[in-house]
Each structure stands twice: as C-alpha cells, then as structure tokens.
Design goal:
The complex is a heterodimer of chains A (119) and B (242).
Chain A lengths: L1 H14 L2 H9 L6 H10 L10 H10 L3 E6 L7 E6 L1 H33 L1
Antiparallel strand pairs in A: 1-2
Chain B lengths: L2 H13 L3 H20 L4 H5 L4 H11 L12 H27 L7 E3 L8 H11 L4 E3 L9 E5 L5 E3 L4 E5 L2 E2 L8 H10 L2 E5 L6 E2 L10 E5 L5 E2 L3 E7 L5
Helix pairs in contact in B: 1-2, 1-4
C-alpha cells in the first residue's frame, strides 16, 4: 500500500518534467522512440511512471517542440527520429530554469522538515 | 505484427485516425517493441501497464489526431458520426488523389518539418531526410544563415519529393546574459556565432577550457538583432571566485 502510494507520487512528480527529460535527450542528437527510452535509462531514469513516452512525444510534436524525420534502418522499416526544434530548445531552457527554481525551493522546505524529524 | 500493435491499429481506425498516420504510428511502435525485446526489455516496461485501447487513444489524442472520445450512439451522435464519416471519406479521397498525382506507391506522404529558425545546412539535411524534393533556397555558402520562411508550411502532409522553398536571412543574436560561459558558447555555436570576450580593445577569443562556473554578464550586440553571418559577439564574463 505504502509502496503503491510512493510509486503514485513518483509518477505524479515525473509527469510535470518528463517532457523536459525527453527534450534533453534529443537536444544534441536526434533519436527514435526506443532510443530515447534507452538514453533516459542511461542517465538514470529507468521507468517513466504510468503510460509511456509515446503520447508525450505526440504532444511535443503537435506543439512543434520536436521536429521529426525518417531515416532508413538496418533491414527494417525507416525509423522516425525526433529532435528538439528551435522552440523546443527554448522551452527546454525555460523549463530547466523553472525546475531548478522549484527544486531549490522544495529542497529548502523539505530539508527543514527532515532536520526536525531526525533531530 | 504483435497483438498489442494490432489492437492499437483497430483503436485508431475506430477513432478515425487517418490510415497513413495510423500506419506511421504502428510501424514506429512495432519497430521499437522489436528492438526492446532484443534488449531484453518487456513491452510492459516500455509502454507501462496501460490497456492497448487507452494507450492508442491517448497517443492519438495527444498528437491532435482526435478531438475527444467518440460520441455515444444517440440520434444526434449518429448524425455527427455520419457527417464525420463523409468528411473522412473526402479527406481520404483527396489524399488518394494527391498520391496518384505523384505517381507514388503506398505511404508516400511526408510531414513537412519545421525549418523556421534552423540553420540553412541543417534545414537542407532535414528536408532531404524527411523525403522532400528539390529544396530551393538562397544558400550562397552561408551555412549558418537561418530559415525565415518556408513553403510548404511545417506540419503539412505532402506527397514524397514535394519541391520545397526556404528563404534564408541572417543570424539572430541570442540572449546570452545570465548563461554560464560553456552554455553560452554552445548557444552561440548553434546560431553560427563566434564568441569572444572582453571590452573595447581588450577583446580576445574564449579559451576552449572556459570554466563552466562563470556567467555572461553583458553582451554585444544586444539579443534579438538580425545581422549578417558570420557574426561575432562579444561578452563580458563574471570573475571566478576561486
């Protein structure tokens, strides 16, 4: 029960920043869907919570934050590659700034609580 | 075709997602699932625990391919459904006509990428990769000039090899003040701008090993200006604490 609640909270928290994480892994080099999942995992984000990255990629595409193109693959059908568009790069910069602000503020509050608990 | 992908395909059909786009998503999903399986990653790890219908509907909705859940089968809903069906038939016929004009086989429609703000060389590469045809532009060897308009517009679905026209301008000065020096160098490089530091006669190149702890505190020219490439920008950098 407690574990489920914890997973649910993690999922809720990730929901607000997963788009930034996706933009971050394609800002320097385009990638297809699964490759993005692999890059997230390599950077320490092994699970992305409920659902998957595809609906989110759909939204980023609709909002013009990612550009897409197809590239031939070895033997299989052409793969769809995603890369951060200029507006995606701007959104990433803004989002990272906002995330750091919020993280700092929340850390300050939680650090105080933790000190009270442990003390 | 895995059962999951087949169920997604059926859901997209039910929701009225155009066949070409449904095919594109199904192909993408199928290829990713196959690669994940080869890596020992299960479909559940890749896609979560979502039901295939929910997953397919969410993806299509987020992409803007459906406007909401299908209407209930009321009398009014029936009329709306019929009207939507007619529209879909018209769209499908138009698409077919386009494909025939292009003398292409199947799946010969490509989505036009967003080129605005992209460097000329990158835009040409993106256009070719996307399957667009002859790309006309005022190149003149200015690889770092930016695209300021494009035809056809971004996001449109056009037949493969459709000729594309890009208009290029010059470099737009980015806002670097407040950024760390290493980040500013990256931003400037992407805009095709050479970055130097100093003031007046004391201008010199930024060393490759610029410390990432220092910040840009002033810049010349000001952000937003459009100037001919190649562009040189001069920045003042905060003094290191250590």
């Amino acid at each position: 029960m407690r574990r489920m609640a914890s997973e649910n909270r993690r999922s809720q928290m990730l929901r607000g920043v997963l788009d930034l994480c996706l933009l971050a892994v394609v800002v320097d080099e385009p990638a297809y869907g699964y490759e993005m999942t692999r890059r997230l995992r390599e950077r320490g984000l092994s699970t992305v919570g409920e659902g998957s990255i595809y609906p989110l990629l759909g939204r980023l595409e609709r909002e013009g934050l990612v550009a897409t193109h197809r590239e031939a693959s070895d033997g299989g059908p052409p793969r769809k590659y995603y890369s951060a568009s200029p507006s995606g790069r701007r959104a990433l910069d803004d989002g990272v700034r906002a995330w750091r602000d919020v993280r700092g503020e929340v850390d300050s509050v939680l650090a105080t609580i933790e000190a009270e608990v442990s003390g | 075709m895995s059962a999951f992908v087949e169920e997604c395909r059926q859901e997209w059909k039910r929701l009225g997602v155009p066949d070409l786009l449904a095919e594109e998503m199904a192909t993408e999903l199928e290829a990713d699932l196959a690669e994940a399986e080869a890596d020992g990653v299960s479909a559940a790890e890749l896609l979560g625990d979502a039901d295939s219908h929910v997953f397919a509907a969410t993806w299509a909705t987020e992409r803007g391919l459906v406007t909401g859940t299908p209407p209930k089968k009321t009398r009014r809903g029936l009329w709306i459904g019929l009207a939507a069906g007619v529209v879909l038939v018209v769209v499908a016929l138009s698409t077919l006509a386009l494909v025939r004009v292009d003398n292409s086989a199947s799946a010969n429609v490509v989505k036009v990428p967003q080129f605005l703000g992209v460097k000329a060389c990158d835009a040409v590469r993106m256009g070719r990769l996307a399957g667009l045809g002859m790309i006309h532009h005022q190149y003149k060897g200015r690889c770092n000039a930016l695209v300021i308009s494009q035809k056809p517009a971004a996001g449109r679905y056009v037949p493969l090899h459709t000729p594309t026209t890009l208009r290029l301008n010059r470099a737009r000065i980015p806002h670097l003040v407040g950024l760390k020096v290493c980040r500013a160098k990256l931003v400037a490089a992407r805009a095709g701008i050479y970055l130097r530091k100093g003031e007046g006669d004391q201008v010199r190149s930024l060393p490759e090993s610029s410390r990432c702890t220092n910040f840009v505190v002033a810049q010349t020219p000001a952000a937003g200006q459009i100037v001919d490439a190649p562009v040189f920008m001069t920045v003042r950098v905060s003094v290191s604490r250590s």
